[in-house]
Design brief:
With about 180 residues, this protein is of the alpha+beta class. It contains 3 helices and 6 strands. Helix content is about 35%, strand content about 25%. Strands 1, 2, 3, 4, 5 and 6 form a 6-stranded antiparallel beta sheet that branches. The longest helix is centred in the N-terminal third of the chain and has 26 residues, at about 1-25.
Length: about 180
C-alpha cells in the first residue's frame, strides 16, 4: 500500500514540477540584447489580426509588434501590450512609449536591451510580450537574478516536498513485505 501511495505521490509531484516550471518560465521576465529591425501596429480582435479572411466581428484593439534580429538566422517577433492591473502583475501602462523607444532604436540601428515574458509559438500566433526596451550598454549581461531566484526557490520547495513524501511513505520496521501474512 505504501508503495502505491509513494508512486502516486511522486507522479503528482512530477506533474506539479513540470507545470510549475512551465508557468515560471512563461511569466518570469527574461532579458535579451538584440537589434530591432522594425515595428508595426496591427488591428486585432480575439481571433487574431483583422484581414479579409478574419473580418472584425468582436471588439478590436491595437497590437504593437517589434521585429528583432539576434543573429543572421535568428529573427524574433515580440508583441508590446499593456498588462494594466491584470495578470501577470507587471503593471505596464506605457506600451506606446515602449513602441516609440523601439522605433527610435530601430531607426538608429543601435543594440536594444529587451525585457519580456512569454513564449513564441508560431502555430498559435503567440508572441512574448515586451515590458521594457532601452539602449543596450556594451557587454551588458542578460542573466536575471530575479528569474533564477524564483526557479531556485521552486526547486528547493520541490526537493523538500519530495523528501517529505519519501519519509512519509518509507517502510516501517514492523511492516511485513507484501505477500506475507501474519500468524
Amino acid at each position: 500500500m505504501r508503495r502505491k501511495l509513494r508512486n502516486f505521490g511522486l507522479a503528482l509531484l512530477a506533474l506539479a514540477a513540470l507545470s510549475g516550471s512551465a508557468l515560471l518560465d512563461y511569466y518570469l521576465p527574461e532579458h535579451s540584447v538584440t537589434t530591432i529591425t522594425g515595428v508595426e501596429v496591427k488591428l486585432v480582435d480575439k481571433d487574431g489580426p483583422i484581414s479579409r479572411q478574419n473580418p472584425a466581428d468582436q471588439p478590436v484593439r491595437d497590437m504593437y509588434l517589434i521585429y528583432t534580429q539576434h543573429a543572421i538566422d535568428d529573427v524574433r517577433v515580440y508583441r508590446n501590450e499593456d498588462t494594466g492591473w491584470g495578470w501577470p502583475f507587471y503593471f505596464k501602462f506605457d506600451a506606446s512609449d515602449v513602441q516609440a523607444t523601439a522605433n527610435a532604436l530601430a531607426n538608429a540601428r543601435q543594440p536594444a536591451y529587451l525585457t519580456s515574458y512569454g513564449w513564441r509559438i508560431n502555430m498559435l500566433s503567440l508572441y512574448p510580450n515586451v515590458t521594457d526596451v532601452r539602449l543596450a550598454v556594451a557587454g551588458e549581461a542578460t542573466w536575471s537574478f530575479f528569474r533564477w531566484f524564483w526557479f531556485t526557490l521552486w526547486f528547493a520547495l520541490l526537493a523538500a516536498a519530495g523528501w517529505g513524501l519519501l519519509r512519509a511513505t518509507r517502510r516501517q520496521p514492523d511492516d511485513k513485505p507484501s505477500g506475507q501474512t501474519g500468524a
